[in-house]
Amino acid sequence: MPLAGQIVGEGVRLVRPLGRGSHSVVYFAVGPGGQPCAVKIFDEHFAAHAVREYGNASGLDHPRLVRVIAPVRVDNQPALIVTLARGHLLFERYAQRPALTHERRAYLLTLVHLLDALAYLHGRGIVHRDVKPENIIVEPDGSAKLVDFDLSGPTRESFDTPMRMGTAAFQSPEATRGEPLGPESDLYAVGVLLGWGLHGALSGPDFPPPPLPDPLDALLVQLTEPDRTRRLGNAPEARERLLELASLPY
């Protein structure tokens, strides 16, 4: 049965799909008072992710994060009502690359907002663990919100067996090894995004040299240091360093 038009929760009407991730599909929806929102519907075998996301994110309230409002069921599937993040996925928003060459101010604002979101999360003892372009929604001016907390969890959370959290291209070395993760692991992913903004490509064996030296190269080195004990692991400090090197006030 089509999901569009269905009423879920306390009068939230599904309107149309916005996108699909590895664990869920997200619908644009309208609340009982006409206010826009989104409904994240999980595949049944990812029900534990829905429970985890609600448990970790329901108390979060920050302008650079989507807010998880309530759990619901949609056609007997687990779902979450969340606030609507307006804009496009980061890679879609920055079609001209390298982003820091073509839209320097906007891309810097995106990174600042991402670091604001992470500073708040880390201050609450939570690590996002899946910072990647698909989880960053960007508006035309570069304003951004971080979404999706179904892999998030407490700092240094350990499991009975090693767990490789995140998406391969943005995983820190310790995440690849399945070790417990801390704030420095999220900041490694920020470093990968900074490198993409500088170079127009993700890091790897064919990582191209920058077209010109950039003051932000120094921050890139600090954020992508393989040794987590030597990596810059403090989001407010990384934000300050970013603005200092970029010489742009926000």
Automatic annotation (TrEMBL):
Residue ranges of the TM segments: none
Pfam family, one: Pkinase
Binding residue positions for ATP: K40
Any one GO molecular-function label of the UniProt entry: ATP binding
Keyword set, alphabetical order: ATP-binding, Kinase, Nucleotide-binding, Transferase
Domain of life: Bacteria
Residues covered by the Protein kinase domain: 12-250
SUPFAM superfamilies: Protein kinase-like (PK-like) (SSF56112)
Record's keyword annotation contains NADP: no
PANTHER family xrefs: MITOGEN-ACTIVATED PROTEIN KINASE KINASE KINASE 20-RELATED, SERINE_THREONINE-PROTEIN KINASE NEKL-3
Listed name of the protein: Protein kinase domain-containing protein
